[in-house]
Amino acid sequence: GQNIDQPTEMTATEGAIVQINCTYQTSGFNGLFWYQQHAGEAPTFLSYNVLDGLEEKGRFSSFLSRSKGYSYLLLKELQMKDSASYLCAAYTGFQKLVFGTGTRLLVSP
Amino acid sequence: DAGVIQSPRHEVTEMGQEVTLRCKPISGHDYLFWYRQTMMRGLELLIYFNNNVPIDDSGMPEDRFSAKMPNASFSTLKIQPSEPRDSAVYFCASSWGAGAGQVVRGYTFGSGTRLTVV
After folding, report:
1. Residue B105 — pLDDT band, cuts 50, 70, 90?
2. What one-character DSSP code corresponds to residue B73?
3. A20 touches chain B (CB under 8 A)
4. B103 to A45: CB separation less than 8 angstroms, yes or no
5. Which residues contact B101 (CB under 8 A, 6 or more apart)?
6. H/E segment holding residue A70
7. Residues A56-75: pLDDT tens digits?
8. From B42, B48, B105, residue closest to A102, measured CB to CB
């Protein structure tokens, strides 16, 4: 079976740091994607982790532990425009991505 | 590049009617995916194609759903007859998969079609 778990909603303050966790159990695993989706828009690519460890890209970082079936997305220096849903997706092979239901992040002033 | 183009952006139809959603993938991409997004279930893969051939349609809910890809630049998802529970946002996405490295950016999604069946 395929199971991707992430919190439904999180809130944070502008300028703060927030960590969005994702756990996965999939039949086949070749990497972990994070997408950002603003309300009413398409998901857009944020990061992709294949190996264990932290990948940093500006204000956003993503971490993967394959042995624990765990990933997180770290957002620093939060801005109002970061209010969006963040989707965790496991790449299970053969070009297939299995998505979680997403975490809605609300950033307040 | 214009990206993945979907039409229509919004569709409101009555139960029992036929609905056709359209997608034009990014030129050169050899994979095309149809997803459905709802609050309860998130993004669900319905079907995907490689070089215009359906590879996996195990996510298609039932026989009322069908998808075609007659050529590399066009695909349709048809629902006949439509039901209220089909109301969702339907996304088309494309990618190229020449090798593992080509997956690094994942998919490019279209803007979606918001379907409401009343």
Report:
1. low
2. T
3. no
4. no
5. none
6. strand A70-75
7. 989 999 999 999 999 999 99
8. B42
Contact list in B for residue A45 (CB cut-off 8 A) is 105-108
φ, ψ for residue B103, nearest 5 deg? -85, -10
Dist. CA A106–CA A85, nearest whole Å: 9
Q: Please give the Cα distance from B71 to B111 (Å, whole number).
A: 21
pLDDT band per the 50, 70, 90 thresholds, residue A39 = very high
CA B35 to chain centre: 5
**Nearest-neighbour CA in chain B from A17: distance (Å):** 25
Query: What are the distances in angstroms from CA B33 to CA A6, A59, A106, B4, B95?
Result: 23, 30, 29, 11, 9
Q: Which long-range contacts (CB under 8 A, 24 or more apart) does B98-107 make?
A: B98/B30, B100/A30, B103/A30, B103/A31, B103/A48, B103/A91, B103/A95, B104/A48, B105/A45, B105/A48, B106/A33, B106/A35, B106/A45, B106/A48, B106/A89, B106/A91, B106/A97, B107/A45, B107/A97, B107/B33
**In angstroms, what separates the C-alpha of B23 from chain A's closest C-alpha?**
14
Instruction: Compute the distance between CA of residue A101 and CA of residue A58 in angstroms, rounded to an integer.
Output: 25
Whether A54 shows a pLDDT value over 60: the answer reads: yes
> Would you call A87 and B42 a contact, using CB atoms and an 8 Å cutoff?
yes
Put simply, the chain A residues between 24 and 83 with a CB less than 8 A from any chain B CB are 30-31, 33, 35, 41-45, 48
